[in-house]
Design brief:
By secondary structure, the protein is α/β, with parallel strands linked by helices. It starts with 6 loop residues before the first strand and ends in a 14-residue tail after the last helix. The structure holds nicotinamide-adenine-dinucleotide (NAD).
């Protein structure tokens, strides 16, 4: 393909995540795609990205600070804008990009509250442009395997699902160091994190959520909880980097110890005010760290869901009850030492038992012996999902995916709808109808009827 006809991509949000999409775009997929601009609050972070391009032997691209986003669209004329900024800002960039005539790919969650979600739905309706949501969870081969089993009718019609998700004191704690710890930024972890899980259930069941009832509390993170547990000494400093008192703190994250953290966050603090290593036992955190929900779908299925953010191990256990049997799906990584983001220092425990770790699926048919389903062996990032997703975003056009893994704005809305309704339920202590908050095609019965 000639340079003239390459698809033009611009990115807004150049923090930790965007590199997973930019690096493949400018290398493996560069024949058909071109990076034409970066936009972020921080010039330092954008300079880091341009330095990464230089290391790949590529020229820097124009960098626009956030207030010049519209200039970037006008001057660089991207065909598609990839939104990878803080969650609460997604809607604004999606809407502006659509109205400038661009298609959009947005990181999950599509946005963080009902009004912002309605603004995105309205902008798509007004412009006719396309939004895709980067639900990488759907694209991991072992989760695809679950979908295949359900679609094949292996356990008949699925009537209920139980999904338990555990975030550990390493990855889970990391959300409480950063902007995610405030509802206004992330919509809570019921939106920021659980959007993946609700999307999976919507997609696995091909179902649209109708009503949500939820409880949620903060029982572990925050100053009060540490003091109540007798851990007052872990509350004595506002952040971890350069703090001698934090030397033995198991929640410590020292930004100066990693090159990318130094360059992306520490060096950009003065300019952007973003402190990436705040004490997880500080005051001011306003999101729950354990949440429990019940969801009823338009087609009658029930979901029982729980999310715990302070577990010694990380992963999920999902069980599907069908009218001809049951599927148990298990996805756990080893337990971690409480050190964030320095994988070299994690101590992965010996596997406690053959089926206790890793990914496996066991089918329990009614009136027949259970069996383990052979699983693909994957060792790539995010269970191999990111690579497959990048091929989908940047590779040659493919025929429509038989498993319906592409998620547009309506499916993006159906996923955050559960978390947004869940937070409304927690705050109002009542069941909440999704339709009160977000209009999802009222006549549709199945998720696959939504774009
Ligand atoms: N699917 C996944 O596996 C996955 C993993 C990590 C992050 N994410 C998503 O990616 C997005 C970015 O997360 P991250 O981990 O890179 O976070 P980050 O904090 O490292 O980066 C966020 C970036 O957004 C920028 N930003 C904040 N407000 C802005 C504004 N108003 N305008 C422009 N830029 C602004 C910040 O300066 C920062 O560079 C989030 O939406 C997150 O949910 C997805």
């Amino acid at each position: 393909m000639s340079n003239q006809s390459r698809k033009r991509h611009a990115f807004v949000g150049t923090g930790g995540r965007a590199i997973s999409f930019i690096e493949p775009l400018v290398t493996r997929y560069a024949d058909a795609n071109e990076l034409v601009g970066l936009c972020d609050l921080s010039s330092v972070r954008m300079a880091f990205y341009n330095e990464r391009l230089k290391r790949l032997g590529l020229a820097p691209v124009p960098a626009y600070t956030a207030e010049r986003f519209d200039d970037m669209l006008r001057i660089e004329r991207p065909d598609e804008v990839f939104v990878c900024s803080q969650d609460s800002t997604h809607h604004d960039y999606i809407v502006r990009a659509l109205h400038a005539g661009c298609d959009v790919i947005t990181e999950k969650p599509m946005t963080t509250d009902a009004a912002k979600c309605r603004a995105v739905l309205d902008a798509v309706a007004a412009t006719g442009k396309r939004v895709r949501v980067a639900f990488n969870y759907r694209w991991a081969p072992f989760r695809t395997k679950v979908k295949e089993l359900i679609v094949a009718g292996t356990i008949g019609r699925v009537r209920s699902v139980n999904l338990e998700y555990l975030l550990d004191t390493n990855h889970g704690a990391d959300y409480f160091r950063r902007w995610h710890a405030n509802l206004a930024n992330s919509g809570s972890l019921l939106v920021h994190k659980a959007t993946h899980h609700f999307d999976l259930v919507n997609w696995w069941l091909d179902a649209i959520p109708q009503q949500v009832f939820a409880y949620g509390d903060r029982v572990f993170y925050g100053r009060d909880n540490a003091i109540a547990r007798g851990d007052e000494k872990l509350t004595r400093y506002p952040r971890y980097t350069g703090e001698p008192l934090a030397a033995d703190d198991p929640f410590r994250l020292d930004l100066s110890e990693s090159e990318s953290f130094r360059e992306l966050y520490l060096n950009a603090e003065e300019e952007s005010g973003y402190v990436r290593d705040r004490n997880v036992f500080r005051e001011g955190i306003d999101i729950p760290d354990q949440m429990s929900l019940n969801v009823r779908y338009r087609t009658g299925e029930l979901l029982t869901y729980s999310l715990v953010c302070y577990s010694p191990r990380e992963g999920m256990r999902v069980t599907f009850n069908g009218d001809r049997g049951r599927i148990e799906y298990h996805e756990f990584i080893g337990t971690h030492m409480n050190r964030a983001v320095s994988p070299g220092e994690w101590k992965i425990e010996e596997k406690p038992g053959a089926e206790a770790e890793g990914e496996w699926i066991r089918v329990f048919p009614h009136f027949a012996s259970s069996y383990l389903v052979p699983m693909p062996e994957i060792r790539a990032a995010h269970g191999g999902a990111d690579e497959i997703l990048n091929a989908h975003f940047y590779g040659p056009p493919q025929p429509p995916d038989a498993l319906g893994r592409t998620a547009g704005h309506e499916q993006g809305a159906a996923s955050i709808a559960v978390g947004i309704a869940g937070m409304a339920s927690i705050l109002g202590n009542r069941p909440v109808d999704v339709a009160e908050l977000i209009p999802l095609k009222p006549q549709a019965r199945r998720l696959s009827e939504l774009v």
